[in-house]
Amino acid sequence: MRSRRRVKDAVLDVSKRSKMRSRFCTWEDFTEALSSGTGNQCIVVLCGSQYAGNLGSAIRACALLGVKWVCVLDVLEWRFVQSAFRAAQLERPEHAEWNVHLVQAPAGRPQKEALVYLQDRFGFELMGLTDAPTALPLWNAKLDHKRLALIFGKESGGIPPEVESLLDVSVTVPQADKGCLNVSHAIAITAYERRRQEQVEVVEPCWSSEGEALKRRRLEASI
Hints:
Order of helices and strands: HEHEHEHEHEEEHEHH
Low-confidence stretches: 6-15
Oligomer: single chain
Radius of gyration: 22 Å
Helix content: 40-55%
Structural class: alpha/beta
Strand order of the largest sheet: 1-4-3-2-7-5-8-6
CATH superfamily: SPOUT methyltransferase, trefoil knot domain
């Protein structure tokens, strides 16, 4: 009985690892998918990642908010990737349909070179999240570009100067007090704002009572 259980557990473990590896894409697979893709495409790009938990939270937010690609411009160990995927809860059966993939840029390829390639080859707009005083407030930024790459620095150091010089626009998440948002929170906020802008529709108000109907007539008369 114990032997059968061990075999079953081993089979399940292999299945989980296989599913997790299918979420991890090479740069070549990524660029091939971009070449054949249609419709609006958005990429979250991190200039490195120091903590698997933060990367996992970012992947989860992207999955739920319609961002298919999370690209890290740094070398990632497989154990680190596994920890990030566990933090994102990608192995859970109910999340099997999430359409999100982690991409690692080729080892040794400069971050600037990878981003220039996305700009020139695929026409991506590069939008960086910074705390620069001249950065545009996120809610005033246009995030519904057909091809948009959202650039984030790693947990310490922010966006490198050589990458910042490439940005088409710099934006920031306005805060009520001093301090820095966790990078995964900044990613979630930005991805949500992008989705909100894509989903905006003009909705006619519903006037369900005589009092509301009177308000409507007064409003129309004042126009």
